[in-house]
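Quick one - inputs below.
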Amino acid sequence: MRKRLIGLSVAGVLLAMTGAAAAETVKVGVLGVFSGGFARWGAQFQQAITVYQKHNGDSVKGNKIEIVYRDVGGPDPAKARQMAEELILREKVQFLAGFAFTPNALAVADLITEAKVPTVIFNAATSVIPRRSPMFVRVSFTLAQDTLPLAQWAAKNKIKKVVSVVSDYAPGHDGEATFVRVFKEAGGEILDAVRIPLSTTDFAPFFERILQQKPDAIFLFGPGGPSSVGMVNMWAQRLKPAGIQLLTTNETQEIDLSKIGPAALGSIGSSHYTETIDTPLNKKMRGDLEAMFGRDTVPDTASVSAYDGMHMIYQVVEKLGPRPNPDEAMKLMSNMKFDSPRGPVQIDPATRDIIQNVYLRRVVDNGGRLQNRNFETVPMVKDPWKEWNPEKK
Amino acid sequence: MQTAVVILLDGLAYGMVLFIISVGLTVTMGLMRVVNLAHGAFAMAGGYVAAVLVAAGMPFFAALVVGTVAAGLLGGLSEITIFRPLYRKGELAQVLMTFGMVFVTIAGLTFFFGTDIKRLPVPDYLGGLVDIGFRTYPAYRLFLIAVGALLAIGLWYLIEGSLYGARLRAAVDNPRMARAVGIDVNRLFTITFVGGCALAGFGGIIGADMLPLEPFYALRYLVPFLVIVAVGGHGSFKGSFVAAITLGLIDTAGKFLVPSIAPYLFFGLVFVLLLLRPHGLWPAKSAG
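Output:
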């Protein structure tokens, strides 16, 4: 028995050696959140990657693409750095990807610069990130990018006075700054800019105050999950009856929409991805996500970014082979232009950030199922923050 | 003036939810001297049971009853199996054990239901808006205030006016003496614990609109629950009612008037109150 085992393994090693000349394994380390309160991010990354590999195979020109997942557990910079180190040194990954939260992405900036590991950001949306390392490229969005067309649309559509309501943390401040700046430039008036502490449970008094200020609309940004749902519900109870419009970015995204319920009807949102986008690729991706992971899977912004991020990595391996020079890989990725499930996208070579359509949309009731429906497309929006802050790092 | 009415209503509704959930905790902490950090888990358990039943088609009020009973039963079960051995173990063991229970519930609920909010929709006739003279106001919040007030009156009678209440107060004030005069304090413990947990479950269900159900519920709202117990005084029913309503009102008014410093206002008030009355507003006689 033992002899046979040895014989088998020797044969295996020989096989592997003869194969090695032609094909290698490309390792991609994905840092995500797979446990705890934010586990849905990791699940969305992983499901989208699985579907991408189903569509395009798990190898490129005979080179196997292997995904190594690591669970950061939440916004935890120290752990993110430690795991990235481990992925680079021990697993010897050629690419890093993932990153749901900004602090986790920023924590690995020095590391990937030094180790020269091309890193694709699947979510983290604070504008500054790609400036922190030449090895970053972002395939998701920035909050300023999604907010800009919303503020312009509001100013053009008889909305004169707005109160900005954001959760009191970094992305909320980004959203507030963008909306206030763009809306004022377009001639609108900001009555008040409220920052709600993250620990808030009852939003009623904040919204009661806004009711007194009598704006035409509110601009709302929440941290996703319970707080966002609570804020949208409070708008529906207190402000909607008074005719105050709700303007949001991703608060009504599909994954939260069923928890908000009919209260979300009539709100206006702006996002780079809407579930009802009519592209063949979107239908194909959503269809397979549902087929493989069940009807309740909600493909969302994070799924699309992960799907596109894999596409970019596949392209690099396709064009530069399994052991690409990191600088060449970054150059190639920074100039990519392709069709995403969300529509046409391209990477801006100057900033390594994505340029994409931003869709203005409305929540509608489609036969008992709530959906976001686009009514206007603002083509190829760049992140405005970098033009406003040319130096900031 | 009209604004003041709305703030008053909002503050009362918030205070009532806090009161219903934490009154059980204040009595058990006062009576049994058990630091029960897992109290929110019973509120959450009631809420989840009701949410699952409502989603399966059960009417809201039937689910409210079943969820409350389920939280009480769960409370009784854990009193017998987990809390009894803890009574004599000292505070550190109690804190560690009950805090560990919180993590177990978080992991368990995440496993079965995922990390998203569990929606518990209120019935349509309560979900709308009613005209309160000068404007519309959510009917559900008025319902909360009414239920909270009725419950407070009922509990007040139970504790101040009934034989059970007299025994309970005796056991809180001086358990040794109560035993000596023939009160079965252990049985009283179990009954009270079950009642407290059932109340928490009840509060978790009817308060789900304000404190949304998700796996981290027990941890997220632990601080407000403990604050009410501390400010009200361990074992004091009256104290926890006054503390919950006061803190609900102050928090609401603070957020309305000065939103930027509201959290400081809330905890500042707690700080001052505890400085003046370290044992709470109405401490039980033997506390401290």
